[in-house]
UniProtKB/TrEMBL annotation:
Residues reported to bind Mo-molybdopterin: N63, Y66, E67, C121, T156, N204, R209, S220, I221, K222
Lineage: Bacteria, Pseudomonadati, Pseudomonadota, Alphaproteobacteria, Rhodobacterales
Catalytic activity of the protein: L-methionyl-[protein] + a quinone + H2O = L-methionyl-(S)-S-oxide-[protein] + a quinol; L-methionyl-[protein] + a quinone + H2O = L-methionyl-(R)-S-oxide-[protein] + a quinol
Cross-referenced InterPro entries: MsrP (IPR022867), OxRdtase_Mopterin-bd_dom (IPR000572), OxRdtase_Mopterin-bd_sf (IPR036374), TAT_signal (IPR006311)
Gene Ontology molecular functions: metal ion binding; molybdopterin cofactor binding; oxidoreductase activity, acting on a sulfur group of donors, quinone or similar compound as acceptor
Modifications the protein undergoes after translation, according to the UniProt entry: Predicted to be exported by the Tat system. The position of the signal peptide cleavage has not been experimentally proven.
UniProt keyword annotations, A-Z: Metal-binding, Molybdenum, Oxidoreductase, Signal
Gene name of the encoded protein: msrP
Assigned EC number: 1.8.5.-
GO biological process: protein repair
Primary enzyme class: oxidoreductase
PANTHER family assigned: PROTEIN-METHIONINE-SULFOXIDE REDUCTASE, PROTEIN-METHIONINE-SULFOXIDE REDUCTASE CATALYTIC SUBUNIT MSRP
Protein name: Protein-methionine-sulfoxide reductase catalytic subunit MsrP
Cofactors required: Mo-molybdopterin
Signal peptide feature range: none
Length: 303
């Protein structure tokens, strides 16, 4: 049974990927091939470096989503139970138009684009993911951010009946995260609603999740139900669990090791026998785009 299901799934994904590659080449020669669409206006990185995305299977079968268990294959196995329709995101706090924004209304208002990003987990593995989504700044713009706001606090859905992992106190639930407002407004920060041109699977954070490619993966909070604009630095789940190991910023930095392991290199998921360790890049390779956000900060202290 399991085998048959798996094979079916695999065949379908191969087709999807073939279509995806074909669409990319149809999009127009070099620009699409180099992933220029993946980076928008800040093209310096993409212009020099083509990113080859991981397979759909890598991206959707090897996950961290502790609400569904701490095993890498738990999310793919259990997250299907999460009800994602209907869905709304409450945007509140320091905004002109607070309220519950229906997912469908958000999608109608946003322009979905493709972003091929490196994704680097704090556990020192990485992937390249072809996300579909929109800039977080555009969603915040819908609600009208007030000038006193300095941070955005994010919250994941908490549905104990559908989330077998939340009966364990691995983290405080609901999962919460936060960004400084300028980080949130940066054009590289997106809300992802798809992968390889399909709706984002539950295990990857359906129906919409944050993706901040220059930060460790845990900042990219899944299945977001609330965003609160505030003038106080928000609490974050991993910082609450272990403040010495996980800071608020959590920018990818090969020069600052995790207390229990090196962050100088990473294991690229996929490729089977050819899976390799590669050096980790400062800000996960997005240094040119984002380093100005941290001017004057000591990145060895403000972890
Ligand atoms: N709500 C929630 N969001 C989460 C997590 C989680 O456990 N719960 N795990 C984080 C971690 S540690 C990583 S590495 C990424 C993994 O995203 P992926 O499974 O799409 O690769 O999601 C992040 N977002
Ligand atoms: Mo992670």
């Amino acid at each position: 049974m399991a085998m048959r299901w798996k094979n079916t799934l695999k065949d379908r994904h191969v087709t999807d990927e073939a279509m995806f590659m074909n669409r990319r080449s149809l999009m127009g020669g070099a620009a699409a091939g180099l992933g220029l669409a993946s980076i928008g206006a800040t093209g310096s990185f993409a212009a020099t470096d083509a990113l080859e995305p991981n397979s759909y299977e890598d991206i959707t079968q090897y996950n961290n989503y502790y609400e569904f268990g701490t095993g890498k294959d738990d999310p793919a196995q259990y997250a299907g139970a999460l009800t994602t329709k209907p869905w709304s995101v409450t945007i509140d706090g320091m905004v002109d138009k607070p309220g519950a924004y229906a997912f469908e209304d958000i999608m109608k208002a946003m322009t979905i684009e493709e972003r091929i990003y490196r994704f680097r987990c704090v556990e020192a593995w990485s992937m390249v993911v072809p996300w579909n989504g929109f800039e977080l700044a555009d969603l915040l713009g819908m609600a009208g951010v007030q000038s006193a706001a300095k941070y955005v606090a994010f919250e994941t859905a908490l549905v104990p009946d559908e989330m077998p992992g939340v009966k364990y106190p691995v983290l405080e639930w609901p999962y919460v995260e936060g960004l400084r407002l300028d980080e949130a407004m940066h054009p590289l920060s997106i809300m992802a609603t798809g992968i390889y041109g399909k709706d984002i699977p539950n295990q990857n954070g359906a129906p919409l999740r944050l993706v901040v490619p220059w930060k460790y993966g845990f900042k990219s909070i899944k299945s977001v139900v609330r965003m609160t604009l505030t003038d106080k630095q928000p609490a974050t789940s991993w910082n609450k669990a272990n403040p010495r190991e996980y800071g608020f910023y959590s920018n990818v930095n090969p020069e600052v090791d995790h207390p229990r392991w090196s962050q100088a290199s990473e294991r690229m998921i996929g490729g089977g026998l050819f899976s390799k360790r590669v050096p980790t890049l400062m800000m996960n390779g997005y240094d040119e785009e984002v380093s100005s956000l941290y001017a004057g900060m000591d990145l060895s202290k403000d972890i």
